[in-house]
Amino acid sequence: MTQRPPLPDGPYLVAGLARSGQAAGRALATLPEAAPVLGWDVRDVPRTRATARELSALGVECHLGGDGTALLERAACVIPSPGIPPTAPLRAEAARRGVPVLSELELGWRLDRRFTIGVTGTNGKSTVVELVRAVLEHAGRRPAVAGNTTFGPPLSGLPADAADVVVAEVSSYQLETCPAFLPDVAVLTNLSADHLERHRSMRAYGDLKRRIAVREDAVAPHAVVGAGGAYGRALAADCARRGAVVATYGRRAGVDYRIRQWTWMGGEARTRVRARGETLDLTTRLPGEHNALNAVAALAVADTLDVPRDVTLRALAGASAPPGRLEAIDEGQPFHVLVDYAHNPQGIRESLRAGRALLDGRPETSLRVVASALSVHVASQRRRMGRAAAQADDLVLTTDRLTPDEPAGVLPPGLAEGAREVCACAVVPERAEALARVLGRARPGDVVLVLGRGERRGMFDRAGRPVELDDREEARRVLRELAPRR
C-alpha cells in the first residue's frame, strides 16, 4: 500500500461547513488525541448554523460569517472545502503566511489504512467508480464508494468498518491541496476542457489531474490510464518510467485494452475488446460508446487486482450506471427519455452520440435536447457547450442556477450565442417549463436528453431560495400528465 504520512500538527481550521467540512470536523474532533479544531463558514444561514451546533457538541469551535482570515492566528493547518478556491481571502492569506493547507480527501486518506482506488478525469469518473465497485462486490470484496461523489460519504467520513477497499472519486479541486495523496490504483479517464474558470488553463488543469498518479518523488503502484489523447499517453509513459504497473485503454492502436467494435442492440451495448492480446466480448446495459470506454476502464482495474475475468464480465453485464448518468426515465411513453449530468462540451457531445445511437438511423425520429450551463463556467466553455448541444434536431436552452447570486431568469452569456452559430433554438428560462415543452412535442421513437444536472438538486428560484427540482422526478411527473393525451 502507498505510504501515508502523518497529519500536520494542529490546531486545525476546517473552512467551509458543507458536506466535506462536516466530515473533516467530525474526523478531527474524534481523534484519540485530538488537537483543537476550529470551524468556519462564510455563510451564516440556517443550514450552516445547524452544522455548527452539531460540530460544537463534539468540541469544534465554530464561527460563521466574515472571511475567516482572523482565525489563522490560531490555526496551524487549514482543511478547506473543495469549493473554496485558491483566490479566496482565507486560502490566499494562508499561503502568504505559509500555513499548510490540506484537502479533506488527503485528511481522510492519511487517517485511513484501507486499499484505495482513486478515479479522476473530466468525464466518466462516477460511472467508472460504480462499475469498479460492482465488480469488486461480485468478486467477494466489501467495497465502498467515497470522495467527491453524492453516492458515498467524503473519504474522512467513511466508517472504519464499512469496507475493506475504498473506491474514491477524486476532483481537480481536491487535488489542488493534496500534497501527498497517492492511491494504490490510480485511474485517469480522460482530459477535456472544464473548470477553466478556476484553473485558468488546460495545462494547469492537466497538471492537477496528473497528481493522482505522479508526484515529484513518488508514483502510484498501479495506473489505469485512458490513452485516447496525447495527455493520457504522456501520463502513462511517465508512470511506467517511474516504476508503476500501467494499463492503458481506448480506441487507438497501441493501447493495452482497445475497443475494436461497439454496437447497441435490444437495450444492450456489445463491445469487442482486445485486452492484452486476447479478444473479449463485453456486454453492458449502458448506452453510449463513451460508457463502453468506462466499462473497459473497470475491466482494466479488475485485471490489475487479479479479479477472475469471468467474474468481471458477469458483473459488468449486470451493472447499472450511477443515478443521473444517462439514466432512462420510463413511464410507458413511446419514446426514450434520458437524464444526464453532461455539463461540459465533451460530455454533451458524448451524450448526443449516445442519443443518436438509440435513434438507430430512423429518418422519422428526432433527437430532442434540454441543455443548460452555469454562469461560473468561462464564457468560451459555455459557447462550446452551446455548439455541442446544437447538434440536436430540437434544442431548448434553459437555466441551471447553482448559487443564489447567479443571474435569475436569463442564460449566462455564451450558451445561446454558441448554439445559434449552428442552429435555431428556443430559450425557456424556467427549467421545469423547458423540460415540459420538449417532452410535450416528443413523438414515438424520439430520444429526449435532459442535460446538465443528472441527479443533482438544489437549484434556486428568482428570489434565491433553494428549489429541490430533480430532472428525473420532474420528467416522470410530466410524462404521467401527458399519458392521457397519447
Polypeptide structure, described:
- This protein is an alpha/beta fold and 486 residues long.
- It has three domains: 12-102, 3-Layer(aba) Sandwich (Rossmann fold), CATH 3.40.50; 106-318, Mur-like, catalytic domain (UDP-N-acetylmuramoyl-L-alanine:D-glutamate ligase); 327-485, Protein-Tyrosine Phosphatase, Chain A.
- It is 33% helix and 20% strand.
- The protein has 16 helices and 21 strands.
- It has helices at 19-29, 46-56, 89-97, 104-111, 125-138, 172-175, 196-199, 202-210, 230-241, 289-304, 309-318, 345-359, 379-389, 415-420, 431-440, 471-482, and strands at 12-15, 37-41, 61-64, 77-80, 115-120, 143-147, 165-169, 185-188, 222-226, 245-250, 257-265, 268-275, 278-284, 327-328, 336-340, 367-371, 394-397, 426-427, 447-451, 459-460, 466-467.
- The strands form four sheets. A nine-stranded mixed sheet has the order 6-7-5-8-9-10-11-12-13, with helices on both faces.
- Strand 12 and strand 13 form a beta hairpin.
- Helix 5 packs across helix 10 (289-304), helix 5 crosses helix 11 (309-318) and helix 15 packs across helix 16 (471-482).
- The relative contact order is 0.09.
- The model has no long low-confidence stretch (mean pLDDT 92).
